[in-house]
Design a protein that fits this description.
There is one protein chain. The protein is α/β, with parallel strands linked by helices. 44% of the residues lie in helices and 14% in strands. It has one domain: Response regulator (Rossmann fold). Strands 2-1-3-4 form a 4-stranded parallel beta sheet, with helices on both faces. 35% of the residues are buried.
């Protein structure tokens, strides 16, 4: 699990390109805090991102789609520059993904695919044990 979180952190770091010196805000949307796995993932992700100088807005939606949609909307309105989304229902975030796209916010799908959307998202290759940093660099180049 730590390898996965480390890979995600590298992806977020490479996507964050607004300023090398200013702290960027990262919104992290987790499906629930009722399972240890999501609590650990959220806490580890937040700690690693904050250690790297990012401001983190971590939210848990208690497995309620409407709550997650509202949380992501608020992250966007509060200035998130990158969103990390572990969606409850990958097909339910189309509206907020469009809002993110309209605001040039980078979106990373964490653990679960985002579907039924035409917006561009990044899904780190979480199931592999070898991960090529060149892949993340190509994602960064495509979004800058």
């Amino acid at each position: 699990m730590k390898k996965i979180l480390s890979l995600l952190l590298v992806t977020v770091l490479l996507l964050g390109t607004a300023s090398a010196f200013a702290a960027q805000k990262v919104g992290v949307a987790m499906p629930t805090n009722s399972l240890q796995r999501w609590n650990q993932d959220g806490a580890n992700m937040k700690a690693q991102l904050e250690a790297a100088g990012y401001e983190v807005d971590l939210q848990y939606a208690n497995n309620e789609v409407a709550t997650q949609v509202s949380q992501v909307e608020n992250m966007i309105l509060n200035g998130a520059e990158v969103l990390v989304l572990a969606s409850i229902d990958g097909s339910s975030l189309g509206t907020v993904l469009q809002l993110a796209k309209d605001n040039d916010i980078k979106v990373i799908a964490y653990d679960r695919m985002l579907t039924d959307t035409e917006t561009s998202t990044t899904t780190p290759p979480l199931t592999t044990t070898r991960w090529a940093p060149s892949r993340a660099s190509s994602w960064k180049r495509s979004w800058t």
